[in-house]
Write a structure and sequence with these properties.
Length: 176
């Protein structure tokens, strides 16, 4: 699979961000899940699925208000030969988090971008994250002050074993 093929999938994630997602997905150990909230047409989800190790299940959660976007994402996963690795869950972030079972090793948040929603998502998903898991929050930067506000609030409220920024991804490490 080439970078050009991946970037041909419609999406709002840059090539460098996709590469970062791919590399972070590779680190998730067998038995833990990779979860993306905010799939849209599937570009970032394909990056995660391409990087995931064989016994790591990948989940994509989105409300998909447009059926066309859902169908497009399904086709993109097939075209990238990763459909068998991915479970798509058409629901809200809050609903998925409330029913979630099992440890998450990597959580990619790219759904709503207002401060209250991002804060709520981190709070709702954090209890499902395994020790050492990473929460990646997309669009951490001047264009989305709500995302920055929510991430900074989390940094003050919770104890993290690490924090970093790569491109527009803020990354929070859950303590081991
Ligand atoms: C910025 S796009 C995601 C872009 C995608 N990650 C990519 O690589 O192109 C945001 C997506 O989040 C979804 N979304 C927004 N709020 C949501 C919520 N509360 N629960 C689930 N999905 C949501 C929207 O339907 C939209 O498809």
């Amino acid at each position: 699979m080439t970078t050009a093929q991946l970037m041909a999938v419609d999406g709002q994630t840059t090539e460098r961000e996709c590469e970062n997602l791919f590399l972070m997905a590779r680190e998730v150990p067998a038995g833990q899940a990779i979860v993306e909230v905010g799939v849209f047409r599937g570009r970032s989800l394909c990056s995660l699925a391409l990087g995931a190790q064989p016994r790591v299940q990948v989940f994509g959660i989105d409300v998909w208000r447009s059926e066309g976007d859902y169908a497009y994402a399904c086709r993109a996963l097939e075209d990238m030969c990763v459909a068998h690795r991915v479970i798509l869950w058409p629901t809200t972030s809050a609903s998925a988090a409330s029913r979630w079972q099992g440890p998450i090793g990597l959580l990619h948040l790219d759904a709503a971008h207002d401060s209250e929603s991002v804060h709520a998502e981190i709070e709702e998903w954090l209890p499902h994250c395994a020790p050492g898991a990473v929460i990646m929050v997309h669009d951490y930067g001047a264009t989305f002050p709500g995302v920055v506000w929510a991430v900074e609030r989390e940094r003050r409220l919770c104890t993290w074993s690490g924090f970093g920024v790569r491109g527009t991804h803020a990354m929070l490490w859950v303590p081991t």
